């Protein structure tokens, strides 16, 4: 019996460009796993980090993933707060995340959002790497609408998140997040729109791998 190698789609994205939205839609359309925040849960367990390690003192975020998690109020970040505590370093976090990503799909086809997954799975034989981006105004507008914050707040968040994410990926992988040569597809969701972007990704998968 021939073993079927799972298809893995990784989506790296600029903050606010629709990565999570499109990732979930594509996973649903193709009947695949969608993997996002599960990676953080798995990483926290690997590093033996728990909410009990969080103190009531200074909660100022100093790591990239914590700062994003803390922004979204619907996520309980207490479990991950200790990611900023010594002796856990960003390199330890990235290595643990890499292990978690490799374990997360368990031999099943999956869409994996961000966290360096496109670099970690670069040599996977059935891998589609996608990078989504858009100009700051478009992304800030989406963030403003989704999270009910002011235009000024959303623009500030986009700018700060871009800086942190770019630095993190560069430091951890040695590659620039926006280097189109690192991806199979690089798409501007602000110009194409989310629906058309979804169609292009699905068509690419169909052309490359046939019917799913």
User: How many domains make up the 3D coordinates?
Assistant: 1
Q: What's the mean pLDDT score? A: 80
Q: So what's the CATH class?
A: Alpha Beta
CATH homologous superfamily grouping? P-loop containing nucleotide triphosphate hydrolases
Tell me the number of strands: 5
GO molecular function: kinase activity
Organism: Clostridium estertheticum
Protein name: Cytidylate kinase-like family protein
Keywords: Kinase, Transferase
Annotation keywords:
single chain; 212 residues; alpha/beta; five-stranded parallel sheet; kinase activity; transferase
Structure write-up:
By secondary structure, this protein is α/β, with parallel strands linked by helices. The protein has a single domain, classed as Rossmann fold. Helix content is 48%, strand content 11%. The protein is built from nine helices and five strands; from the N terminus they run E-H-E-H-H-H-E-H-E-H-H-E-H-H. It has helices at residues 19-29, 38-46, 64-71, 90-104, 117-120, 136-147, 151-173, 189-192, 194-209, and strands at residues 8-13, 33-35, 110-113, 127-133, 185-188. The chain has a five-stranded parallel sheet with strand order 2-3-1-4-5. Helix 2 crosses helix 4 (90-104) and helix 6 packs across helix 7 (151-173). The two termini are 19 Å apart. Mean pLDDT is 80; it is low at 50-85. Pfam families: Cytidylate_kin2. Keywords: Kinase, Transferase.
Topology diagram in text:
Elements: E1 8-13, H1 19-29, E2 33-35, H2 38-46, H3 64-71, H4 90-104, E3 110-113, H5 117-120, E4 127-133, H6 136-147, H7 151-173, E5 185-188, H8 189-192, H9 194-209
Parallel strand pairs: 1-3, 1-4, 2-3, 4-5
């Amino acid at each position: 019996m021939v073993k079927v190698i799972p298809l893995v789609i990784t989506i790296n994205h600029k903050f606010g460009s629709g990565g999570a939205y499109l990732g979930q839609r594509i996973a649903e359309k193709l009947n695949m796993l969608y993997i996002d925040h599960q990676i953080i849960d798995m990483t926290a367990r690997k590093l033996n980090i728990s909410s009990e390690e969080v103190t009531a003192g200074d909660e100022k975020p100093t790591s990239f993933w914590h700062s994003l998690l803390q922004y979204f109020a619907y996520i309980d970040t207490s479990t991950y707060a200790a990611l900023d505590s010594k002796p856990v370093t960003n390199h330890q976090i990235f290595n643990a995340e890499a292990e978690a990503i490799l374990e997360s799909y368990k031999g099943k086809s999956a869409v994996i959002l961000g966290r360096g997954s496109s670099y970690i799975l670069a040599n996977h034989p059935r891998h589609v790497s996608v990078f989504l981006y858009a100009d700051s105004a478009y992304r800030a507008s989406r963030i403003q609408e989704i999270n009910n914050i002011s235009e000024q707040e959303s623009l500030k968040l986009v700018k700060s998140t871009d800086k942190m994410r770019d630095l993190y990926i560069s430091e951890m992988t040695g590659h620039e997040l926006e280097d189109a040569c690192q991806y199979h597809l690089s798409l501007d969701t602000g110009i194409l729109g989310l629906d058309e972007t979804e169609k292009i990704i699905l068509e690419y998968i169909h052309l490359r791998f046939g019917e799913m």
